[in-house]
Amino acid sequence: MKALGIAATGMMAQQTNVDVISNNIANANTTGYKTARASFTDLVYENLSREGAVTAEEGNTRPVGLDVGLGVQAVGTVRLNTQGGLVQTQNQLDMAIDGRGYFTVNLPDGDQAYTRDGSFRLSAEGQIVNGSGYEIDPGVVLPANTTKIEISDTGIVSAFVDNDPVPVEIGQLTLATFVNDAGMRPLGDNLLQATVASGDAIPSLPGDEGVGILRQGYLESSNVDIVRQITDLIQAQRAYEMNSKAISTADEMMSAANQIR
């Protein structure tokens, strides 16, 4: 009886599903977080009778086959890159991307990572950095005695220095896009890394077609739909329980067969 193994794969798949859903719920308030969804495929089938096989000398053929599947497996997590809501913060270093682009940050090892989290800060040297202290790329350094900064929708950074009413342009922010941004690898700390599946980053300016614009003083909230996640969690729980019931039923059937005299 294959039911024990088949149901076991179902239970393991639903455990993975619950893990993914739990992570979504845990990150419901994480800036720029994108909902993930576990995807599954059925395993190979054992063919007990081939469809189309000849069943009589007259040439009659079997209209359907007899195939028994061997269960399910998790094959990946799909990130749903829909736009999250914009929340006003009044912080002049906060930036939200209204579109599909990503900020670029330089990692300590010389590599680059990408993020939708625009909650930036200033380093001791006046550089604009993310929450982990990684400098954005291209780098922007504020002059000494900067009293206010302005960031346009198209990424132009201007600074008001001392009491001068005329701002000084100090940098141009860029965004990156990907052919397949769902193929990026999550690193934690709200960072993603380019992979072979995502393709190389395509540098663009905010405001370019298909890239998006910047909103100073706003942050992008998570796109997690809590009601949907709770519904999915209940469905995963019920599926897990049914697989557990299948194991119990198979065990009872085998026990009954063993007791035949």
TrEMBL record:
Its main location: other. It is found in: Bacterial flagellum basal body. It comes from the Bacteria. GO terms for biological process: bacterial-type flagellum-dependent swarming motility. PROSITE patterns: FLAGELLA_BB_ROD. Residues 96-159 form the Flagellar hook protein FlgE/F/G-like D1 domain. Residues 6-34 form the Flagellar basal body rod protein N-terminal domain. Residues 215-260 form the Flagellar basal-body/hook protein C-terminal domain. Belongs to the flagella basal body rod proteins family. The basal body constitutes a major portion of the flagellar organelle and consists of four rings (L,P,S, and M) mounted on a central rod. The rod consists of about 26 subunits of FlgG in the distal portion, and FlgB, FlgC and FlgF are thought to build up the proximal portion of the rod with about 6 subunits each. This is Flagellar basal-body rod protein FlgG. It comes from Marinovum algicola.
